[in-house]
User: Which sequence fits this backbone?
């Protein structure tokens, strides 16, 4: 039976419908937020899956019909998820995943189908609410509800789920999710906003989240199903005791080795000792063997995790011996790659990233085809994480969800300082290639590409640095259990820690935030402490960067395209383009392949590595759009002569007619007797009628004494061969 629930949220109608659509799913809801409609479903497998992880999949399916568009692909079907859909799926996954019990191994799939989009009412957060509700009203064990909102700040005022127009004028673009008790996820870009103000925005968002969670609880009480019994995975206590007794003390010593590779070799040796022993034992069947080996692996992994956490929380000793607020050794280099427009390498401990910047014309901007209003993107930041960066063999190819997410985070961090298109009319592509990794590679990529932008001569507004903060807690964050916040987390601390909190920004404030956690939320106090600690670390990193390059170079690389920007009358655009692009293609061919961008408002930008070719192309366009003015003087070339006058080329395709009466002060019967094609002639514009230009040459000749002006005789019909007498044989003066 269909049930409908409504809430007035952020001044808009939020409606949830259930019991009518997708009834065979374990849980399903249709959520309407304004005219945005998302169908969210949740399904859970009946039996646990083999493996040492929780197999949760979150899908965010964008249907082009949601905005009245036909897909642009060859088959006219939606294809693989685009970047926006991938990022939206990650946004939903991150606050939901920690709310499943440890040991949950049944596969769960959440599908959000975006069926209608009103861009003033966020489909992403509508899908997050739907995902939570689909789980909560189903029989799938889930410790929700959870909800999310966008927070903006317009004219100093914080706004929940800003409209598209408000978002354009906002200096904060914050996504925050959580339960009614704590923050679970943060993702943000900002225009250099101080940390305390960002924290206020996060907590403002949490107040709205509490309202949504209360609404969800009301729905759960009405239509929620009893939760099914799920057997949670737990290792055999006897096997666990055996392993701890045999290598427990030696594992403690191995974990205390500071060098990553040496430490990993020592840990792997102990693991292999146990694995080889259990692998050589006799089992009832292959399934029992596989199950035992997986359990042994889990126990060994848990052993390492427990010791790393104990050392940090109790002894304040990190795996590499650093203090809790200490950054790993830094190394900064620029101009690594001679032909790249800008390049840099940023190394922090055993994490190393090569960043490059490439400049191109505005026509190289990325075309966006998703359900947002964004149509193109002139600044791109892309992140690559090859398997050799961690000493492994693995898949190479198109980016995965993690790479897309890290690239987008870097783009948010650096977008705040990228110059406007009016200041710097280039398309800018930054690529971060991780060549070595031991944690915090996403923040290293931000530092590397901030350096590569400055090396490329991009006039960024300020230097951006990033740092990843961690959290290790000994229990719930209730004020009773101690916790430790770590600066610049490395791989082990990220893998076994409770929080990965990435902070990037300038000296004046934050430009990007991202927080993932593995526990049931963090408090304002924890976030405040982490932000303050990150502020100090970012300043230290910027200081190291500034020693190598303190400001953007004044000129772009000699290998980068140079450019000039100017405006023409929009009515002249068709003249510059020509029929079928004939005119502009001719300019490009004559100017060594220059690139020319012409905008609808008449803005023209010309790009080429050779400034001389740019100037040549600009002169050709100037000639096309130029209009003669009365009184202007030209040194032109005669390109056609009729008996009634000479046609003189003034510029481009513009000719002026010099009537026989204006060739000389003396009478001229036939212009052919005065000049010929190819002669140079100095003329002045004396009139413009219906786009036709009249010029005169005689002003540049001596005027006879007693000269009397004669009326201008009409031109003879073309082809008249009559030649009168009395014409002057005086040649014109150059």
Assistant:
């Amino acid at each position: 039976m269909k049930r409908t629930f409504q809430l007035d949220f952020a001044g808009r109608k939020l409606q949830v419908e259930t019991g009518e659509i997708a009834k065979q799913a374990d849980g399903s809801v249709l959520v309407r937020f304004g005219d945005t409609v998302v169908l969210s479903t949740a399904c859970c497998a009946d039996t646990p899956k083999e493996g040492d992880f929780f197999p949760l999949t979150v899908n965010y399916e964008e249907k082009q019909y949601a905005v009245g568009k036909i897909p642009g692909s060859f088959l006219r079907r939606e294809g693989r998820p685009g970047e926006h859909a991938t990022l939206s799926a990650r946004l939903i996954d991150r606050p939901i995943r920690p709310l499943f019990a440890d040991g949950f191994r049944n596969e769960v799939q959440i599908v959000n189908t975006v069926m209608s989009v009103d861009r003033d009412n966020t489909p992403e957060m509508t899908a997050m609410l739907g995902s939570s509700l689909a789980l909560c009203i189903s029989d799938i064990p889930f410790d929700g509800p959870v909800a999310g909102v966008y927070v903006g700040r317009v004219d100093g005022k914080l706004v929940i789920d800003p409209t598209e127009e408000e978002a354009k004028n906002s200096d904060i673009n914050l996504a925050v999710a959580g339960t009614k008790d704590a923050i679970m996820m943060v993702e943000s870009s900002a225009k250099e906003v101080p940390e305390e103000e960002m924290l206020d925005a996060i907590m403002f968002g949490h107040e709205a989240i509490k309202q949504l969670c209360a609404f969800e609880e009301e729905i759960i009480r009405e239509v929620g199903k009893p939760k099914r019994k799920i057997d949670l995975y737990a290792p055999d206590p006897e096997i666990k005791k055996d392993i701890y007794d045999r290598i427990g003390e030696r594992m403690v010593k191995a974990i205390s080795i500071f060098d990553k590779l040496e430490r990993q070799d020592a840990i792997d040796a102990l693991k292999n000792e146990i694995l080889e022993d259990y692998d050589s034992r006799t089992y009832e069947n292959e399934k029992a063997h596989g199950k035992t080996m997986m359990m042994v692996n889990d126990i060994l992994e848990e052993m390492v995790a427990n010791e790393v956490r104990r050392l940090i929380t109790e002894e304040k000793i990190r795996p590499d011996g650093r203090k809790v607020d200490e950054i790993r050794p830094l190394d900064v280099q620029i101009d690594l790659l001679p032909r790249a427009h800008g390049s840099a390498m940023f190394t922090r401990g055993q994490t190393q990233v090569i960043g490059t910047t490439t400049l191109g014309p505005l026509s190289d901007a990325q075309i966006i085809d998703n359900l947002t209003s964004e149509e193109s993107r002139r600044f791109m930041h892309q992140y690559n994480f090859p398997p050799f960066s961690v000493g492994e063999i693995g898949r190479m190819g198109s980016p995965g969800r993690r790479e897309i997410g890290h690239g987008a985070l870097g783009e948010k961090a650096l977008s705040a300082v990228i110059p406007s298109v009016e200041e710097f009319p280039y398309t800018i592509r930054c690529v971060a290639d991780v060549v070595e990794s031991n944690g915090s590679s996403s923040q290293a990529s931000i530092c590397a590409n901030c350096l590569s932008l400055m090396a490329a001569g991009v006039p960024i507004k300020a230097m951006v640095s990033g740092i990843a903060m961690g959290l290790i807690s000994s229990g719930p964050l209730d004020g009773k259990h101690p916790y430790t916040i770590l600066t610049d987390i490395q791989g082990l601390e990220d893998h076994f820690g409770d929080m990965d909190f990435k902070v990037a920004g300038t000296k004046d404030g934050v430009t990007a935030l991202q927080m993932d956690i593995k526990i049931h939320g963090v408090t304002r106090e924890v976030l405040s402490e982490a932000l303050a600690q990150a502020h100090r670390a970012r300043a230290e990193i910027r200081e190291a960067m500034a020693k190598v390059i303190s400001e953007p170079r004044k000129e772009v690389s000699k290998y980068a395209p140079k450019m000039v920007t100017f405006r023409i009358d929009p009515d002249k655009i068709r003249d510059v383009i020509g029929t079928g692009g004939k005119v502009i293609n001719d300019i490009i061919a004559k100017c060594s392949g220059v690139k020319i961008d012409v905008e609808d408002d008449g803005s023209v930008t010309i790009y080429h590595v050779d400034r001389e070719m740019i100037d040549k192309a600009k002169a050709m366009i100037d000639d096309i759009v130029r209009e003669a003015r009365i009184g202007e003087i030209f040194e032109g070339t005669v390109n056609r002569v009729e008996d009634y006058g000479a046609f003189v080329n003034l510029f481009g395709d513009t000719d002026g007619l010099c009537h026989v009466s204006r060739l000389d002060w003396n009478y001229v019967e036939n212009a052919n007797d005065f000049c010929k094609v190819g002669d140079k002639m100095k003329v002045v514009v004396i009139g413009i009628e219906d786009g036709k230009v009249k010029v005169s040459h005689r002003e540049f000749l001596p005027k006879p004494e007693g000269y009397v002006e004669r009326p201008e005789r009409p031109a003879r019909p073309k082809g008249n061969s009559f030649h009168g007498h009395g014409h002057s044989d005086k040649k014109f003066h150059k």
Q: What stands out?
A: The longest strand covers residues 36-48. Residues 68 and 400 are 29 Å apart (CA to CA). The two ends are 96 Å apart (CA to CA).
